[in-house]
Amino acid sequence: MSTVNVSLKVNGKAYEVQVEPRTLLIDLLRNHIKIKSVHRGCEEGECGACTVLLNGKPILSCITLAAQASGSDLLTVEGLTTDAKMNSLMDAFAEHYAIQCGYCTPGMLLTAYHLLNTVSDPTEEEIRKGISGNLCRCTGYVNIVKAIQTAFQTQKERLR
Questions:
Q1: DSSP assignment, residue 63?
Q2: Residue 2 pLDDT
Q3: Are 71 and 17 in contact (CB under 8 A)?
Q4: Are residues 69 and 113 both part of a single domain?
Q5: 139 pLDDT more than 90
Q6: Do 15 and 58 belong to one domain?
Q7: pTM of the shown model
């Protein structure tokens, strides 16, 4: 079977991996690079559990071919653990009990992180729209929205 060469940066580290052309990005991340925060959920691009940031934008790795990401920078939760914005998000999620089973949490955090970087002062409606591609079966979203609002407030206070 033929293979393709995929060159990309994941969490700041360069990788070159030979994969079958049909290999999905989630499989490259989990099986070849051993990133475990990227969860396999619906496998149809509906739940957001597989969300990663590709060149700073959220994408669904379960419906993206690995070859499509070649030449790109990818970020997962593991790559953002030292970032102040991500830390404020993680703290806010803990403070507001926005995590229950944790399955959706990495994708939810990455989507919220993208919001922190692209929207200056979002309304509750904008936050809900921003995370709408991430399904959570446990929390009912109220605490997740509160956590994201708290993280925004924390960022505003740091900028003063």
A1: S
A2: 95
A3: no
A4: no
A5: no
A6: yes
A7: 0.93
